[in-house]
Amino acid sequence: MPETRPIRVLSNLVASQIAAGEVVERPASVVKELAENAIDAGATRVAVELEQGGVELVRVTDNGGGIAKGDLPLAIAPHATSKVSSIDDLDHIATLGFRGEALASIASVSRLTIRSRTAASHEAFELVSEGDVVQPIRPTSGPVGTSVSVRNLFFNTPARRKFLRTTSTEQGRCHDTLLAIAMAHPLIGVRLVIDGKVVFDLPPDQTPQQRILDLIGKELEPELLVVQSDQHDVRGVSLFGLIGTPSIARATNKSQHVFVNGRPVRDRTVQHALLQAYRGLIEPSRYPTAVLMLEMSPEAVDVNVHPTKAEVRFRDSSLVHSVVYHAVTRALRAADLTPTYFSFGGNAGPASSPPHAGVLPNVPSGPMVEPRTPPSPQQVEAFVGYLQRFEPSTAQPLLPTEGQTPGSADAAAPAPSGTPAGPAISDAPIPDTAAVLPEVRRADRILQVHNSYVVTQDAQGVVIVDQHALHERVMFEALLARVGKGNLESQQLLTPEVVEATADQLGRLEEMRPLLTRVGIEAEPAGPRSIAVRAFPSFLFSRGVEPGPFIADLLSLTDDNEEASRDTRLKAGDTGPRDERLLRDVLDMMACKAAIKAGDAMSDLELNELMRLREAVERSSNCPHGRPTTVRLTIRELDKLFGRG
Fold it and tell me: Tens digits of per-residue pLDDT, 9-62?
């Protein structure tokens, strides 16, 4: 029999140290809690000093209202706060801190000194504690405000100290934590000093845009777009922020910053809306750069769902998702997203002198791609005629209207007659892509290079187009518009084509049958290990796509992120049928198979038609996979390359 142990009441120190395990994970947690306390105290300037990555010292000094002498002992008492007095206050939290745990938790695992003075006092007072030992309060000198020094973090919990990372890692986390707080509060001056060296010193009274650029780098300004949606009075949510063009998307989401009522948070609803807005503009493995600041009534958001207040819960997550999605999509639609030579290639372009000055590169004499047989006049006429069947003016808008979510069944339906295209979230007109992209000079100024790239010019410089990527986007948008009106035209095969299939693929065939009907494919099991294709989309036949290999590839499509993203989609309000989400993947595959390939020669008529559609088709700057279709080499960059700049 196991030994029966008596129940004991934990000592205050042990209880506080257990609580500290949730609130104080590392020095960055101390920086966050103390800086937020300073902001809540009305400070206009906050200074943070670190030594040894914050393990040996974190000192936060502010010019806020200060702490009265009689309140200093309560400041480090568990669950003592000046910000909440009743349970009703939890529904109206307008401060960054409110739990009354931060200072008590920090004090239990460090050597803490608080020096503070209020405006009504002629002298400052100091409180010193070490674990659960608190020394008597003593008078001292100091300006109005508070300075909190935290030394020897986890000195009395060595097991916790062992889990800390290297000095540079902890220092980096402190830096990122303060950077996020500074970004959220541009009216407050913020200074960071690490081991005696000033890392940044931001002035007070900056605009949000100035503060963001100061922190993420002013060199990114040409690649940033303003996002704004002021609907606070009508819908309860307003949004301001900066988002990056697809050319500066990153391999991780560390360049995404989300703030709710001045609080840095991690929120899957906002992240999902952001990714949906960029869908088709960036590769699936990359993440957009974004700083989004949401403001809403305190009653509309629950901040009391995480010990460190790093996560929030929205009362209406679908509304937040809609506001973010539509605002970001409008900003992207209104911009020319064609990357320039320098922004697309990073440091690929020179800063002041041309590469390999005085040395001619070894240019191969023959074409890099084996040319293919030019199309016949009949093929050219059929190709151009097919493209012209789907004019952009007749296509349904890709941006869902108010109340819809991307991927839902309603989003794919054609807009009712007389309904204006675009969202109803703002009265501001959304420019067509044709108005955003500089007009390309056609006719004799379009050149096909190595039967793979199209070179032309616009008002800003030289435009280089990947013919396959651009044609894939054109075909995808045409197919999406056509499916919105009904099933794709199909052609019956005289003899069914039999495709070998696994048991999993046969099961997938049954699941995808309604979707296959929409895209003009008729297929059914023809045995325990085979599938018979009886009908195939007419346009794929016209583009020389073989039914057998296409069906085999189609049945290999998987929704790898289905399980991982289920909670995110539900929280974001994306409850559309699975086939609606898979539809885009299928249409993307069809467009890729049918599009012009590298090595395909094009007539002047085809080149002109393709470039015309680039100016009219939605999101023509990127293919459906997110790769760029176009790169621009500006006149200024050309001057630099030739040493004239």
Answer: 666 666 665 555 557 889 999 999 999 999 999 999 999 999 999 999 999 999
Per the DSSP assignment, residues forming a β-bridge with 57 are 51, 151
Q: Residue 436 — φ and ψ, nearest 5°? A: -90, -45
Least-confidence region, from 289-293, 295-299, 387-391, 532-536: 387-391
Beta-carbon contacts of 19 under 8 Å, excluding residues fewer than 6 positions away, are 78, 101, 104, 105, 108
Encode 315-326 in three state secondary structure: CCHHHHHHHHHH
Residues 263 and 302 grouped into a single domain: yes
Whichever domain contains 563, its CATH number is: 3.30.1370.100
Question: Residue 645 above 80 pLDDT?
Answer: no
Tell me if 112 sits within 8 A of 136, measured CB to CB: no
Element (H, E) at 493: strand 490-500
Ramachandran bin of 147, using left for φ above 0, alpha for ψ from -120 to 50, beta for the remaining angles: beta
The side-by-side arrangement of strands in the sheet containing 530-537 is 490-500, 530-537, 522-525
Q: Name which of 280, 336, 266, 221 is nearest 568 in CA terms.
A: 266
Distance, in Å, from the CA atom of 443 to the CA atom of 458, rounded to the nearest integer, reads 13
pLDDT digits (tens, 9 = 90+) for 544-575: 899 988 988 888 765 443 433 444 344 333 44
Asked if 329 and 196 sit in the same domain, the reply is no
Averaged pLDDT score across all residues of the chain: 79
As separate numbers, helices (DSSP H) first and strands (DSSP E) second, the chain gives 22, 23
**Residue 329 shares a structural domain with residue 234:** yes
Measured in whole angstroms, the distance separating CA 529 from the mean position of its chain's CA atoms is: 43
Q: Given this model, what pLDDT does residue 89 score?
A: 55
C-alpha closest to that of 153 among 27, 37, 32: 27
User: Which of 517 and 381 is assigned the larger pLDDT?
Assistant: 517
Are the C-beta atoms of 480 and 398 separated by less than 8 Å?
yes
Residues 248 and 166 in one domain: no
- Tokens standing for residue 47: 């200074």
User: Of the candidates 186, 218, 191, which has an alpha carbon nearest to the alpha carbon of residue 204?
Assistant: 186
Question: What is the distance between the alpha carbons of residues 50 and 386, in angstroms, rounded to a whole number?
Answer: 66
Place of tokens 């405000």: 145
Sheet holding 461-466, edge to edge: 447-449, 453-457, 461-466, 630-634
Question: What is the rounded CA–CA span in Å between residue 321 and residue 324?
Answer: 5
